[in-house]
Amino acid sequence: MRQRIARLCPWIAGAAVIVIAALLCWKAVSLYTAGNALRDAQGVLLSPIFTRENVTACIASISLPLGICLLTLTAAAAAALLNGISSRRSPRRKPAYAAPLPHACLLRSLVLALALALIAAGVMNGGLYDVLVKAINICTECIGLG
């Protein structure tokens, strides 16, 4: 059972990351297309597209699926770490790959916890808005839309 979990964790984490990226891309495109509809006959924007209110409403609409995907990603990472620690203690059959040492798993889990805490602090500080606006502007300028 533990080997199945060890084999499934990277797939679950990869699927969660792909779903998160797809959700964010979908909302960025919908925000851009909704903002482009606010042009007059000469093509001049009547109001800014990427205001804090527009971006917040757009991200808030996908907050539940985004949170579920982030929790799934965290659970898969935690299961992989716990499986790595428990497979070292098992006197039975060893896995084909070399399991990490317990102190390395502890270090990885501390780095993961620190990363999640800093991401949460950045989101609470309004950094998500800045990063999203910069990413959208770079993307639209690169392909010649903005």
Provide a descriptive summary of the structure in words.
- There is one protein chain.
- By secondary structure, the chain is an all-alpha fold.
- It has one domain (2-142).
- The chain is 75% helix and 0% strand.
- The protein contains five helices and no strands.
- The protein has helices spanning 2-36, 52-60, 63-89, 102-124, 127-142.
Mean pLDDT across all residues, rounded?
75
- CA radius of gyration is 21 Å
Please outline the major beta sheet.
Answer: none
Can you tell me the number of structural domains? 1
Number of strands: 0
Category by helix and strand content: mainly alpha
Key words describing this protein structure:
mainly alpha, 146 residues, 75% helix, 5 helices
Briefly summarize what is shown:
The protein has 5 helices and no strands. With 146 residues, the protein is an all-alpha fold. The protein is elongated and about 65 Å long.
Topology:
Elements: H1 2-36, H2 52-60, H3 63-89, H4 102-124, H5 127-142
Helix pairs in contact: 1-2, 1-3, 3-4
